[in-house]
Amino acid sequence: MPMDHLACFTPADLTGRTPPDLGAFRWRLLAQGDSWFSNSRDKLNAHANLLQELVFRSPVAAINCAGTGNALSHMVDLESSPEFVRLLSGPGAPLWDGVLLSVGGNDLIAAARTPAHHGSGEPIPLQLRLLRHQTEWGPPSAGVARYFSEPGWVTYSDYLRANVKHLLSLRDQGPSAGKPVFMHCYAVPMPRPAGAENGTDLGAGPWLYPALKAYGVPAADWAAVSRLMVFHLALLLKGMAADKENFPSLFVFDSTAVPLALATPGSTGISGDWHNEIHLNHSGCFKIARAWSEAIELVLEGKHLIQPTTGRKGRGSSSSNS
């Protein structure tokens, strides 16, 4: 069956001289997110946009509020995104069939980049950072978890849960109350000296590479530490999706289940399915988006899976929490 790419528009398109006919599409979605969603020309020139690679069996349109401005650097920035909030729950907001979100990854990176000490030399408490200083490492028997701040993870988890609950409350204040919200997990980056050509919301990068060096984490453990953090985030997001009482109609796609070509350690540019240290290139976006598309479409058609499905190849490698 022929597949249609997601038709992406901006809020400005809705008020332009020739606004899109959203009635021509079977489903209409509202999108917001970080640099994985951004329509900013410098970001599109630098690396891929995950939305560009979503495909469906029926025509689907999205109004993407990541737009041409700065993509979200923190979850709390959702509230300072007036176009998104207006289109989601403001006066005269349209009825959306669902909401697409790419959030939480930049917060994870920012937490991992928090240093062990202030510039004055005063220690930053463990509950405010994700990595441990060498003097705080656990025993070698703990593996790479000895570098990880569990108190910091509790703080991050509470923060992310509160912000996602707030976003769902915004949805339920408007005409799209109860409609599905689709979030994705993140792929596991290889910490390496590969920054962004045109800069990002968190600076030009690299991002994890200098943080792990500053904390003295052995290079042989960098990939495993990155995996530990991304898998913690995936479990957190999937746990929220499974908690239907507190997070109703939230659906999380497990991007970690999609096989990707890892970047080569030490590489400084495009490598594997990665454009730089934390952003996918077009092949990486293609692999994740094609699998996520199927999970989204199952929900929109009312056929979403009760149990996550993993271990299959290609589009079938998706997993959805219902």
TrEMBL record:
It comes from Pelomonas parva. It comes from the Bacteria. This is SGNH/GDSL hydrolase family protein.
